[in-house]
User: Fold these one by one.
Assistant:
Number 1:
Amino acid sequence: MPMDRDMRQQLKIVMVPILKAFILLILLSLSVFAQGADPGFQTRIAQGSKFVQRFSGTGPLPADDGSDDGNAPIDGSRKILKAEHKGHKGATTADASQPTNGGPLIGPDGNPITTPEKPRFETNCLGTWRITTPNVGVAAMQLQTMPNDKVVWFDTTFLGPSALQWNPPGKNCPINFETNVPDCYVHAIEYDGLHDTTRPLTLKSDPWCSVGSLSATGTLVGSGGYYKGRNAIRLLKSCPNCDFTEKSFVLGNDRWYASQHILDDGNLVVVGGRKSFTYEIIPPDTLNIPIKKFDFPFLQQTTDPVENNLYPFLYLVPDGNLFLFANNRSIIFDHKSAKIIRELPPLPGGSRNYPASGMSAVLPIKIDPKAPEKVYFDIMVCGGASPYAFYPVDSVQARPKPKNVYWPALQDCNKIKLMDPNPHWEKDMLLSPRVMGDMLILPSGDLLILNGAKKGAAGWWNGDDPNMTPELYMPKQKLGNRFKKLAPTHIPRMYHSTSAVLSSGEVLVAGSNENDRYVFQGVPFPTEMRVEKFSPPYLDKNLDKYRPKILTPPKKVKYGGHFSFKYAITTPPPQPLDATDLKMHLLSPPFTTHGYSQQQRMLVLDVILRGPDTVQAVAPPNPKIAPPGYYILFLVHRGVPSAGIWVRLVTQ
Ligand SMILES: *[C@@H]1O[C@H](CO)[C@@H](O)[C@H](O)[C@H]1NC(C)=O
């Protein structure tokens, strides 16, 4: 029976105050309970409301032109952010260990954590693979991502036809610089990393096992190689119709299997190469190279009967000196005087450079705005092979080779904290052995370990048992929990394979040639023409709702200056974000060949919130910590990165 209308009204009059009182009582007891359980509860509620209040205010932003040196007096909003950090100090985080009495929180990696962060958003996704181009035509021996997301790669010009003819076929056959006969095949391409189209490029001198890096203007400067390319310079600008310009016989020494890195002043240093126990400094963006060469006996001391110190690992360290790892020894040296400043402890276990080709990367470099010059610089050296692995496999002429000549690759993965007073190697283990792998810094700040073999060494026909399962290295996890197996590919990628992180957050994977020519039949590992893209776990669709988007990308960023941009999150969260929920990651695009991504680094910047839709950060303080040039900027929300945008870090 329906209730009488008047009766309902009467009930309402009686019940509403009772209900109100009841709800109040529940709320009160809840708050008392919560206070008892978490003394920070009330403070956080209060701060939360202040936080919201601040958003409605419209205080002026510090200038974004770099005029602010980052030491400006702390304004009201920053004070509130500081108070919030204090409020969260006792909160547990995924990464932090127990806070010491009054001292800074120490992370599991031994570095202090200044701003405790909330855990990352979780995903069960292990990544996905897809083939984007079935037959790209040119083997990706060495590869550079350009500041327009075009990925340039090339192979040797010397060893016969590629799988891509100049179009129209037979009509465009430039004389091969080396052999003096017409060559109708393409040996270098520009691959559009976002749209998967290709454009052929012209190479004259042979870039076989050469080196390269991006200069401060975004020009690819390729050095060395073989034959008439062995001391050549090749320049490629990033513009829609640009092609290589090159000049042979300009370097001070032959640079075959050398390493290269940009310096803080924008010059480039080229180190080593087969039988070249020297390094030289070259100016960028020019084919006129004044010889500025230094003898460097360390390169001679670290070579052995099969060399094992080629493509040495080279980094510009934050004091402006260089770190060099060759075979199993490493040093810090002053490139202005060729003086070794210190030798670090040797790394036992085997050899790490070509042909024992291990992997190396520097972990993301966290910039503390309060002490911007003081950064941690932790270098990883992982995998590789026994110093004796190359000879048995390389000396066998039989095809296919007997299985017993392939020695197991190394599985250890080691870290050295360069800024420690007494740096030493801390040993961890990969989940599987790997030689000729790649180690890329992902937009999330984790490392991706992929490609390579479980057995053998670098060199044609020298790899076996391809390692098709990538691993994620999570530097902030506790020792023992840092590695995770990701979804495997089914395409072997061993010798002369490469990979690159794109601004979309995807990873392009290309190349692999265990043969000295383009061979597609009758061999265990045919020349690989398929291009793949790997979507790391952070691209999981289920995380899209958390994904930030950069709305007003800055183009240039000045050292030490404030810069800001507007952003949005796909599904705006119900609560306003904490500043610690967001980070800016600046990733320099490396030149990747032979398992080593040269000139790769990531800078991690704290974020200041400026209203509900604007984030601000202080740019890296100087070009020693972050060499000048192009970086991909990602806004990262608790481990979920935005698509990246290209920014140029400049002095002026
Ligand atoms: C470093 O390599 C050299 C040459 O292979 C070897 O003689 C030496 O014992 C190695 N050092 C360590 C610590 O493994």
Number 2:
Amino acid sequence: MSGEQQAVWLGDERDVRVDESVVQQLLDPPRRRVLLLGDLTSDIAPVLEDLGCDHVQTAPETVVETALAMGAINAALVDPALLATDRTMHAVADLRALYPQMRVLLAGAPHELPAELLVQAIRGGLHDIIDPTDREGLRGALQTCLLRSEQEAERVLAIGAHPDDVEIGSAGALLEHRRRGDHVAVLTLSRGDVGGDRNARVGESVTAATQIGARLLLADLPDTQIDQGIDTIRLIEAVVGALKPTVVYVHSRHDNHQDHRAVNTATMSATRSVAQVFAYQSPSATNEFSPTRFVPIDAVVTRKVDVLSSFASQSERTYLEPELIVAGARYWARHLAPLARYAEPFEVIRSFIPRRAALSAPAQTVLSSPGPVAPMALSASHAFAGESA
Ligand SMILES: [Zn+2]
């Protein structure tokens, strides 16, 4: 999702409906991207082009910078000739850290690959083997792995009371979600009339959402008088029911602003079926705000500052000063030192991940009976045991 977009207007009706086209726009799969590690282009490029995939060939030495330039990658195909070196295995590990839902495939005819190489592939966490000379098998395996990678993308919904709340608290995490290929929607419940001109604030919200790559849904509840009761719950429930988020970000209940607390309370009811719910920090958060989850935002902290600069009508607010935004992120990264220099803090309200846990379990563990397990023949259609989602 990129370029200019319009907000989706939810208004202040009691019975909010989220149009199916909005859901489709949110869930439209991003461009499919495949990274080729080694000299694989001649056999594989025609199939990738047929499947509508962008693809770039690279070497282990340049894999991270190439991957970052490409954006969210669905799959990486590895030339067996490179597999024996530690550098390649480190490159694969770096790639999987960058893009957790990416599938990594070994491109070689299984019957021609030495056993040591296959062991190396298993140890390196590669997901499957595909034979580049088997055009139909290659096409089927790639389609399956692209689909699986897309299914594993999170659907993220970030909820805030006023324009700029979501962005101050979680723009870094949302940018990270987008970088990994997740779908992101922002639900802002009021137009912020008390804090400035509503039309200006709406325009700023649209700009900020575009910069994040998020779909924006704008309701029109009364600024400073947002109720925590059934109408607000139903509004949020309608959005949750339509978008079916797997991750929700919302205000903390530890906050001095009555609207923020009301949105937190209503969201607790409306998102009771969502597996992962986290509370972000607002400038009005109290000292009781007690985060235990810290998201590294080193790669996007500058972009977060840019996103917040969209809210020009609020530029007099000291909490939007770039120095404070960066200093706050630097402070919270103390919990991650020395692994990160900038982080966003979140309270964990719920964190339950059944789908990913099921996917990451080795097949034998899920299916085996108490007896000995027969060796599994490796073929183009077998995923490696030990794969992780
Ligand atoms: Zn607010």
